[in-house]
Design brief:
single chain, alpha/beta, Aspartate Aminotransferase, domain 1, Aspartate Aminotransferase, domain 2, seven-stranded mixed β-sheet, four-stranded mixed β-sheet
């Protein structure tokens, strides 16, 4: 179906931060399959683990015990300081599980129609519930009626959330993305997540974080919430978990970890042996190579070089970033830069029409990081000069 506006290129193979197309042309990948390939392409340790598992056992279903899934759950729970994990196949499914947890939790509090506070500018997925929760009209258009039960508030505005507490007794949870990637790498003020945590504790709400894009060391910590030293009640993960092999997870603690009971939720493929092996191996490499710390250092390096290069260029409004999640906001639409960068052998993404989003693999070298910066700077300068700025 015509659901994608694909670029005119097809890739045959990859290695590390590089991809080769069918004609043998080489590209430096600053997108990572939209924050998925955290270890780059064809990582030998992950490839070997997938091959070994494929020769042993791919799938049995969740009708039976899956020891490797249990091992993965223990690792994730320890890293995020959570109690239990539900495995699925994508970020949207992980957020669906979070929404069901919130509604079930609300019913334990005798709230007839539980509502969830969600943020303007957010993106949580394309299922009916997750697109309804999203603060993005483009993903909702044409799919009405939307799923009810969501109350919208401005992102990065704790007082607006506090006012909801005074006017909406049906709210039982808050769902937000700690850094809004799809909206253009929008980073809230320091202390915002802590304020949300405090409000949730005051009101008896669940704090639910969509870390699908920000998790797995992307921002310089295992999870973005760790930058503020807080713990949410529910965390949704996917993308980088399996380095390209689809897997998602919804982590929870406390009462949020207990409200879903046998038969109330499920997934045929969720956490099967192959996906669990890929995720366990990916996490092991991330840990052994200290790639959260590397993402932090490389991100700072790229931000500093971008800020220096663009300090006197009026076309650049703002440069934002946390780890290897970087957004360069221009004063005009710049989607044309995606095709131009492709011709220059670089893969970038433009989101929110005017934000160049960089999500390179965490195994990036300093030389590759500098090459991405130099190429992006050249593209933006050319855009500015072409407009006569």
């Amino acid at each position: 179906m015509a659901t994608y506006a694909r670029l005119p290129v097809a890739f045959e193979r990859g290695e590390g931060a590089w991809l080769w197309d069918l004609a043998g042309n080489k590209y430096l990948d600053a997108v990572s399959g939209v924050a998925v390939c955290v270890l780059g392409h064809a990582h030998p340790v992950v490839a070997q683990a997938i091959s070994e598992q494929a020769h042993k056992l791919l799938h049995t279903s969740n009708l039976y015990e899956i020891p490797i899934q249990n091992a993965l759950a223990e690792v994730l729970a320890r890293l995020a300081e959570m109690d239990r994990v539900f495995f699925c196949n994508s970020g949207a499914e992980a957020n669906e599980a979070a929404i069901k947890i919130a509604r079930s939790y609300g019913r334990t509090k005798s709230v007839r129609n539980p509502a969830i506070a969600v943020m303007e500018g957010s993106f949580h997925g394309r299922t009916l519930a997750t697109l309804s929760a999203s603060g993005n009209r483009k993903v909702q258009a044409g799919f009405e009626p939307l799923v009810p039960g969501f109350v919208r508030v401005p992102f990065n505005d704790a007082e607006a959330l506090r006012s909801i507490a005074r006017t909406r007794p049906d709210v039982v949870a808050v769902l937000l993305v700690p850094i809004q990637g799809e909206a253009g790498v929008v980073i809230p003020a320091s202390g915002y997540l802590s304020a949300v945590r405090a409000i949730c504790e005051e009101q008896g709400w669940l704090m639910m974080l969509d870390e699908v894009q920000t998790g797995m060391c992307r921002t310089g910590e295992w999870f973005a919430f760790q930058h503020e030293g807080i713990r949410p009640d529910v965390v949704a993960l996917a993308k980088g978990m399996g380095n390209g092999l689809p897997i998602g997870a919804c982590l929870a603690r406390g009462i949020a970890a207990t409200v879903l009971q046998t038969g109330s939720h499920g997934s045929t493929f969720g956490g099967n042996p192959l996906a669990s092996r890929a995720a366990l191996t990916t996490i092991s490499v991330l840990n052994e190579q200290r790639l959260a710390e590397r993402a932090k250092l490389l991100g700072q390096r790229m931000l500093s070089r971008l800020q220096e290069a663009f300090q006197d260029l009026p076309v650049v409004r703002e440069i934002r970033g946390k780890g290897l999640m970087i957004g360069i906001e221009l004063d005009r639409p710049c989607t044309e830069l995606v095709a131009r960068s492709l011709s220059a052998g670089l893969l970038i993404n433009v989101t929110a029409e005017r934000v160049i989003r960089l999500l390179p693999p965490l195994i990036l070298s300093e030389v590759e990081a500098d090459q991405i910066v130099d190429s992006v700077v050249a593209l933006v300068v050319q855009l500015s000069q072409a407009a006569g700025d």
